[in-house]
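cron nightly-structures :: item 1 of 1
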Amino acid sequence: MMGGYGSGRPARWPSLWSLYSVRTTQIRKACDFAPGLHGSITFGDGTTITVRTSPGYAHVNGVALLLDWTEPHLGGRRAWFRCCSCGRRCTVVYGRNQEWGCRRCWRANYPSQKEGHYDRLIRRAGRLRRRLGDKVVKAPIDHVDYAGIPPDKPLRMHWRTYSRLARELESIEHEAAKLFHEQARRLLVRFRQKGISLP
């Protein structure tokens, strides 16, 4: 478990999206780091965790996290967590239930860090389409007829900006479509080699 000093790392290396994150700013808002005060933090899925502070510690769901303080050049005091496992200074701890620690000890990555080339292309295309105001086409492969066809120019966007983004979108979606068809072709060949017939 990661709930105390000297504890080991979890057996699985989860995605950050599967963990809850608590920031020092949330502790400050919930109980202002005043010893003895209680508060709570509610996440988007409705989960609520309890927080309280004691001299030198912030207690998250009953797990005592050591606090550290620094003094910025412009004055005031800045709060930090000390990771339960490695003692590293951090402003965010991740966890669930009674296991809390820094991102490094969890060995957790953002989902985008595990994406392949095709997935990154799809994500970039979606980001470009949203910037261009497209609210219909979410991905080029879901709507093959629209691949490489940009939406109309949004109001107040300069033509030069629109042309640049449209060219980038066309290039990305054509590359994604090419990869998709190559993967589909290889999959069909594999099915035929195994004698699997498709409807």
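cron nightly-structures :: done
The first strand starts at residue 20 and ends at 23.
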